[in-house]
Write a structure and sequence with these properties.
Low-confidence stretches of chain A: none
Largest sheet of chain A: none
Largest sheet of chain B: 7 strands, mixed
Structural class of chain B: alpha+beta
Largest interface: A-B, 28 and 34 residues
Strand content of chain A: under 5%
Helix content of chain A: over 70%
Oligomer: heterodimer
Mean pLDDT of chain B: 88
Low-confidence stretches of chain B: 1-26, 542-548
Distance between the termini of chain A: 17 Å
Order of helices and strands of chain A: HHHHHHHHHHHH
Number of strands of chain B: 21
Structural class of chain A: mainly alpha
Strand content of chain B: 15-25%
Number of helices of chain B: 17
Number of helices of chain A: 12
Distance between the termini of chain B: 14 Å
Helix content of chain B: 25-40%
Shape of chain B: globular
Mean pLDDT of chain A: 85
Radius of gyration of chain B: 26 Å
Chain lengths: ~270, ~550
């Protein structure tokens, strides 16, 4: 681990620690409205001020971090798992199965994912608590975000398929499932990691985009995305620069996730 | 570009005669610039449905009677005078003589007859014509002379004169059809997706007090711009002269930077409200249907919402708490005798307990022990509505009610509230441009599509809805303003008592007008910023640079 990687990992750990301890550190719940002091500046009671409804901005930031940083990796894990299974099997088996998987991938890449998310969101039941709706939103992202990874993994698996060690394993009578689990998957593991870490910031940004459109995490629950909706008002932003903290945090986390990857995995 | 305009402005200022007074710097001519927020769908004034076409109709159309947007009084337009018959079925106009359309075609009573026939033609499906349809039968138009017209309707039409403010007269003989107009401007050029250029009609009949022909402006350029941020940016840069409708958020932004240009005309006609789904066939659990049908429940929810906070926080004080379907801005029709309810969560709880609800810890439960929780839907991307729901969440949590918010894209939302009825509560707004109670017939009649809480009823589901039907029909069939006012006051009272719509706020009418525009007097009625376009003129603008 290089020095830079250690720094990135430490920052991520610190952010995770703050996120977990938010409940004990904060004086107010993220949804509580101090209606006498909307849009207030930093003070001892509210270190990052309050939002337009008078809610403590630091509380919303830390709870929003919890939402974004817990659910984005979960969605990334789901999409990477789907991509790993489909890509590895397609690459290993080749032939008609590979063609079907790649055709399905191309088809879903061609779909406008934003509209797909809008349609799926509109079809969901309405009487669900905010937390469940957040989980559903990230679940949808995970289920719809595997296509690019499939192509990469399939290409890599195809390379492994023609390798000498796999030929040897086949000639020894190794069955396809065992070939996949014991020989192909371990060789593709760095790629899986890379895809997982690359997907995390992607899903955080997707949630941010959805929230800016008013379709992400619902009120009163905070997320980095809906905190960044305040950026629409540039004049307020220039007068209250501390409102940029969610963006700064997002940039730091995305950078740290990229840095923390071993260089050989990035190279893959 | 701005630097060039500033230099030109300086040259103009330096070349100006030293003796020129400030008043003489204000002159006729020039091109007024502002934005349409959508593509005009039609230039035919009889087919106008949306804002962009309405703006063009207002600026180009000549009408027999004009509603003064500031005094809310009717003023003579192409008609010098008019008289409604005692039975309210017919109206006689005495027309101005010697007028010509923008293309030079003479204006006579034949044009009015032609317009009325086209307006009432069922094949045309004119939305403006729908307001005149009072009963079965044909509309008869007689032209006893070139300067008088008598229009007779099959049944009395309530508020008949006022409806003519929307009827732009077409030429019966002009080869230019609807492009020949009697208003202050005519459409000179239209570039789809880009702009509409209106030029001054030299045949316009109106003159100022000194006898100078109106309008003062040479032309108006309407840029088609859907994005409100870009519209605001262009206004800040001095590229456009006015913004007709401003949201509270944009208003505050502008007021901070340029206080002189932001105008708040006071409480407007637009309202924000929420309602509960009372459709009997809605796919909701029976316990929730029972809550939503309970008058006490709806009244308690209404009492527990702090409207003053909504106005102050979400709209930055540019809105007033609303309690009924008529804004106080409508001086004549507003029922001022209704009490102004106060935010009172304790009283709300008492009302709920009378209706069989009870508090268990922090949770309100109904008589069967079900937790009181519902989801409010609203359209996505509307920040003020999301903020209103967030505040309502906290207000109602005081009485143990849990509120969830779901935002949906507009087509999905419309699908749910008009077809599938798969929702519990909805928060939306109503843009109201007409003061007359008839404009709300499509909301309050139980058979109406916009009777949102339980639309398209074959017969009224409740006694009070039957009473609403009776009163709305009664006010629509009489010509006595006093009787209509009495009926409409009673309608407002029933709505106040039953709370089928829980009115939240009336938004203020806000607009932005550049200091370069002289004569502007923003009003609460639409069009707010250019209702008196005939007398608007451009002068040098110290803040934005010379616009001429």
């Amino acid at each position: 681990m290089t020095f830079l990687q250690k720094v990135a990992a430490s920052i991520l750990c610190a952010i995770f620690a703050l996120m977990v301890l938010a409940t004990f550190l904060l004086p107010a719940h993220y949804a509580r409205q101090f209606r006498d002091i909307p849009n207030a500046g930093p003070s001892s009671g509210h270190p990052l001020g309050t939002d337009p409804l008078g809610r403590d901005f630091l509380a919303r930031l830390l709870y929003g971090t919890r939402v974004s940083l817990l659910l984005a990796p979960a969605a990334a894990l789901l999409s990477t798992l789907i991509a790993a299974v489909l890509g590895s099997v397609a690459g290993l088996l080749g032939g008609w199965f590979e063609r079907i998987v790649l055709a399905a991938t191309d088809l879903s890449l061609a779909l406008p994912w934003l509209f797909l998310l809008l349609v799926v969101r509109a079809m969901l039941p309405l009487d669900v608590p905010p937390l469940v709706s957040v989980v559903i939103a990230f679940l949808m992202m995970g289920l719809l975000g595997w296509q690019a990874s499939v192509r990469l993994i399939c290409t890599a698996a195809r390379g492994v398929r023609d390798s000498d060690f796999l030929l040897l394993a086949r000639s020894s009578g190794c069955k396809p499932a065992r070939l996949l689990v014991r020989h192909v998957a371990p060789n593709l593991r760095p790629l899986f990691y890379a895809q997982f870490f690359i997907s995390i910031p992607l899903f955080i940004l997707t949630e941010a985009n959805l929230s800016i459109l008013g379709l992400g995490v619902m009120e009163p629950m905070p997320s980095w995305g809906n905190l960044m909706r305040g950026f629409e008002d540039f004049s307020t932003l220039s007068a209250n620069p501390w409102r940029l903290v969610p963006l700064v945090l997002l940039v730091i986390v995305v950078m740290c996730f990229q840095l923390v990857l071993p260089s050989q995995e990035v190279a893959q | 570009m701005r630097r060039v305009s500033v230099v030109l402005a300086l040259i103009l200022v330096l070349c100006w005669p030293v003796s020129a007074s400030a008043e003489s710097a204000v002159q006729s001519g020039g091109e007024l610039h502002f934005c349409l927020r959508g593509e005009p769908k039609t230039f035919n004034p009889l087919l106008v449905e949306e804002d962009a076409s309405e703006t063009i109709r207002y600026l180009t159309g000549g009408v027999l009677i004009r509603l003064n947007r500031q005094t809310q009084a009717l003023e003579p337009g192409l008609a010098v005078s008019w008289k409604v018959s005692a039975d309210g079925r017919s109206i006689r106009f005495h027309l101005r003589t010697g007028l010509h359309f923008s293309d030079g075609t003479p204006f006579t009573s034949e044009d009015v007859a032609y317009t009325m026939k086209a307006l009432m033609d069922p094949q045309l499906h004119s939305p403006t014509g729908d307001s005149f349809r009072s009963g079965e039968g044909q509309v008869a138009v007689r032209t006893p002379s070139a300067d008088s017209v008598i229009v007779t309707f099959p049944a009395p039409v309530a508020g008949l004169e006022r409806l003519f403010d929307q009827v732009a007269i077409l030429s019966a003989h002009s080869p230019n059809k609807e492009m020949a107009v009697l208003g202050p401007f005519y459409v000179a050029h239209y570039t789809p997706g880009s702009s509409v250029l209106l030029r001054r009609s030299t045949n316009y009949w109106k003159k100022d007090k000194e006898g100078k022909p109106l309008p003062y402006l040479d032309s108006i350029r309407l840029d088609i711009q859907r994005n409100r941020d870009i519209e605001l940016l262009r206004f800040r840069r001095g590229e456009i002269h006015l913004i007709n409708v401003l949201d509270a958020e944009y208003f505050d932004r502008l007021q901070k930077e340029m206080p002189a240009v932001a105008h708040d005309a006071g409480t407007g006609l637009d309202s924000e409200f929420m309602w509960f789904n009372q459709v009997p066939t809605a796919p909701l659990v029976e316990s929730k249907k029972a809550w939503f049908r309970s008058t006490e429940f709806r009244k308690a929810i209404s009492m527990a919402i702090n409207r003053a906070d909504l106005s102050r926080i979400v709209f930055g004080g540019h809105a007033q708490p609303a309690f009924g379907p008529v804004s106080p801005a409508s001086h004549f029709w507003f029922n001022s005798s209704l009490p102004v309810p106060q935010y009172d969560s304790a009283a709300a709880l008492r009302l709920l307990s009378q209706a069989g609800f009870h508090l268990e810890g922090d949770t309100l439960r109904d008589s069967s022990g079900n937790r009181v929780e519902f989801t409010v839907i609203t359209n996505s991307g509307n920040r003020s509505r999301e903020q209103m729901v967030a505040m309502i969440q906290q207000d109602l949590s005081q009485i143990g009610v849990k509120v969830n918010l779901v935002t949906l894209d507009f087509p999905s939302l419309i699908e749910r509230i008009t077809r599938t009825y798969d929702y519990e509560a909805c928060l939306l707004g109503l843009v109201n441009t007409d003061l007359d109670p008839n404009s709300q017939m499509n909301v309050w009649l139980s058979s109406a599509e916009n009777h949102q809480w339980n639309p398209k009823q074959s017969k009224p589901a409740t006694a009070w809805e039957a009473e609403l039907d009776r009163l709305m029909r009664a006010q629509a069939s009489t010509t006595s303003d006093k009787k209509r006012k009495a009926d409409w006051d009673r309608v407002q009272q029933i709505i106040f008592e039953q709370q089928p719509f829980i009115y939240l706020v009336n938004k203020n009418a806000m607009s932005a007008v550049s200091p370069a525009v002289i004569g502007s007097a923003p009003s609460v009625l639409d069009p707010h910023a250019f209702w008196n376009v005939e007398v608007l003129r451009l002068g040098p603008d110290p803040a934005l640079g010379a616009q001429k």
